[in-house]
């Protein structure tokens, strides 16, 4: 086997399983309870994970996508094959897309161990292209509580994003075999080969372009390909429709206590939060919804309670949104941002330094005073000794007359 064949095989094998960005893991910051969702829901959790954000061996992985969907910070990115498998049907000729699990008796288009393994971003992307049918007929007999909880969370988030009217118009939940009967469009051989060729030339290339490490040089490499694809679709619909749709997105709820310290911006590993200084002297907080994983780590990291958790907002775009404007106040010593109600006009670091310097000066003054007291005491004692010596009578002269 040549070196080029080995490189190609390694690249192919590396794209058949998810990837973990440990810097974005929920467990990176101290929490009361460690997150083990990915390890718990994986059918081969103990064989793959040594701990939630560290992989021992990817060989048992079937690329089902359960860990990708359950990750609260989206630090687990899907493989190239999973992105293609989930999104390629948006360009198919069928009027509807059927999604079901392996236990279903239907001939579904997307088959996974659980419907919840398809994250809500991928479901929303497909629903904005075609009608979506979720085959939930085996769910009544499923005994996997974790998958059931994941499915409920994904469907709830899908409803919140699309809204109830659009969800009812685009998504069908098939709980019984007679609900939403499957109708597959028969294609001729010419249409089939033409469709395969078009998919390989345009659709697959477009999907691969969105993957981490395979993007264009002029664009940021998307760490969340499903959200990136959803953002592109939302932009297309906004330009194509007269009345844009509104989508439910969770964003950090900043309040008036924010003074632009930048702690949330540093904590957000996805780069969704940006603090910008405007020419008019004001500062604004900008959040990019398609980058935000809705994990809430920014709210946990804020020491001044300037973020009231994550709030559901209705937006017409997933691009950057300004969520707060304020005027910065700066520390009079170092120039860093300080709360507007800071009485002394100092930041926390300079305040500690000022207190330390004041204490050091007070301690030095006390030490100097004690040294002066000791010197004065010694001088007084020496003077008293000198006076006592001067006042004492001289001893009589020795009698030498008896010696002659």
Helix fraction? Answer: 25-40%
* Overall number of strands: 15
Give the distance, in angstroms, between the N- and C-terminal Cα atoms: 131 Å
Question: Would you list the SSEs in sequence order as H and E?
Answer: HEHHEEHEHEEHEHHEHHEHEEHEEEEH
| Low-pLDDT segments | 1-14, 183-220
Q: Strand order within the widest sheet?
A: 6-5-7-8
How many helices? 13
Structural class: alpha/beta
Rg from alpha-carbon coordinates: 35 Å
General shape: elongated
Strand content: 15-25%
Q: How does the major sheet shape up?
A: 4 strands, parallel
Q: State mean pLDDT (0 to 100 scale).
A: 80
List keywords for this structure.
404 residues, alpha/beta, 13 helices
SSE blueprint:
Blueprint lengths: L2 H12 L4 E2 L16 H5 L3 H4 E3 L2 E2 L10 H5 L5 E2 L2 H8 L8 E6 L8 E3 L7 H8 L3 E5 L9 H18 L1 H7 E4 L14 H21 L15 H16 L6 E8 L8 H5 L5 E5 L4 E6 L9 H5 L5 E9 L5 E7 L1 E2 L6 E2 L9 H44 L13
Parallel strand pairs: 5-6, 5-7, 7-8
Antiparallel strand pairs: 1-4, 2-3, 9-12, 10-11, 11-13, 14-15
Note down, in words, how this protein is organized:
Residues 52-81, 250-278, 283-313 form the 4Fe-4S ferredoxin-type domain. Residues 370-381 have a biased composition (Basic and acidic residues). Residues 382-392 have a biased composition (Low complexity). With 404 residues, the protein is of the alpha/beta class. Helix content is 39%, strand content 16%. The protein has helices at residues 3-14, 37-41, 45-48, 66-70, 80-87, 120-127, 145-162, 164-170, 189-209, 225-240, 263-267, 297-301, 348-391; strands at 19-20, 49-51, 54-55, 76-77, 96-101, 110-112, 131-135, 171-174, 247-254, 273-277, 282-287, 307-315, 321-327, 329-330, 337-338. A four-stranded parallel beta sheet has the order 6-5-7-8. Strand 2 and strand 3 form a beta hairpin. Helix 6 (120-127) crosses helix 7 (145-162), helix 6 (120-127) packs parallel to helix 10 (225-240) and helix 7 (145-162) packs across helix 8 (164-170). It is elongated and about 145 Å long. Residues 1-14 and 183-220 have low confidence and may be disordered.
